[in-house]
User: Which sequence fits this backbone?
């Protein structure tokens, strides 16, 4: 299903007269998946919206660079991930004086204040647990836990070996479990 | 049992975490958001890729090939300067890196370079930017980083 849509998109993009049609189909097909990928990284809807629009403009400008040696969606995910990391780095620079503890409180407050977050207590705890992980482990955990991406696809997106990704997910899941246990005991 | 098998077994048990916590996230989007998003994206690309921060007027146009070349030269020059001046002398002296290796390092670590240090180097460039205020130089550098970072990775 996915492969046949990708084939159609790429075929339309190859012809200048159908380029716009191909790009429109690409947006329709992948906007939701990319949205959630970005949202899990940058958290708020407003920031996700800004980052996502940048991503699609970059895709529009660079889709001719796609050589077809990976799946289209892993190529798109890679752009989305890189763009989100760039955004997070910029945000982090602006907030460099905030301590880790204050950062956790800020994160929890921002989740609860977000009008587009309806999470229950357990979901907030899980989000907080994920937020404690190193950035790479957060990425791996989100891709695997929420999106069920295969390790092979994740390997293409993150340019990391399957073995390293399995190990990374294993450690991330252990830390998440430990955090949740700790919170439950308090 | 070796470590590899142990990890694999643990991974097989991970669905338990999902069963306990569920996969729902609690995030949602405004009604009709994706329909609107599609329209917004297509409108933007039809307007020949308008700047992301539309409310902000760009000080410089980087659309010409010369503009891009100048921006890239400035970034690489600035990055090289920052790299050379932030590498401990003992390491710098004992490593014999080729220009290609340095470019590769810069390309792979472009996002790690400190904008403030680059800004210092840009400020030190006498010709083009000397008439700009500090705020204008900062804005120029920020725009330059945003506009060229993606293309740089392809070019270098």
Assistant:
């Amino acid at each position: 299903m996915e492969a046949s849509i990708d084939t159609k998109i790429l075929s339309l993009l190859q012809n200048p007269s159908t380029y716009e049609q191909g790009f429109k189909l690409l947006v329709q097909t992948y906007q939701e998946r990319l949205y959630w990928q970005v949202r899990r990284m940058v958290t708020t809807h407003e920031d996700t919206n800004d980052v996502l629009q940048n991503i699609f403009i970059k895709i529009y400008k660079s889709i001719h660079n796609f050589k077809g040696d990976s799946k289209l969606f892993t190529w798109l995910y890679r752009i989305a991930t890189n763009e989100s990391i760039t955004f997070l780095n910029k945000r982090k620079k602006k907030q460099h004086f905030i301590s880790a503890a204050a950062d956790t409180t800020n994160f929890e407050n921002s989740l609860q204040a977000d009008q587009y977050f309806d999470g229950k207590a357990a979901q907030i705890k899980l989000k907080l647990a994920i937020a404690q992980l190193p950035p790479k482990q957060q990425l791996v955990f989100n891709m695997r836990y929420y999106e069920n991406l295969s390790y092979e696809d994740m390997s293409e997106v993150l340019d990391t070996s399957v073995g390293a990704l399995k190990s990374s997910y294993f450690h991330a899941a252990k830390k998440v479990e430990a955090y949740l246990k700790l919170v439950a005991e308090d | 049992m070796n470590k590899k098998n142990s990890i694999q077994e643990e991974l097989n048990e991970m669905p338990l975490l999902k069963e306990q916590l569920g996969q729902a996230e609690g995030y949602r989007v405004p009604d009709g958001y994706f329909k609107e998003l599609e329209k917004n994206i297509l409108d933007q690309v039809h307007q020949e890729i308008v700047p992301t921060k539309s409310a902000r007027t760009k000080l410089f146009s980087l659309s010409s090939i010369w503009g891009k070349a100048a921006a890239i030269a400035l970034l690489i020059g600035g990055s090289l300067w920052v790299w050379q001046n932030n590498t401990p002398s003992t390491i710098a002296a004992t490593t014999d890196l080729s220009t290609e290796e340095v470019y590769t390092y810069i390309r792979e670590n472009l996002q790690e370079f400190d904008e403030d240090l680059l800004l210092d180097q840009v400020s030190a460039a006498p010709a083009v930017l000397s008439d700009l205020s500090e705020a204008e130089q900062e804005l120029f550098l920020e725009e330059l980083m945003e506009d060229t970072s993606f293309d740089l990775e392809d070019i270098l």
Notes: Chain B touches chain A through 32 residues (CB under 8 Å). Confidence is low (pLDDT under 50) at residues 50-62, 89-94, 122-128, 147-156 of chain B.
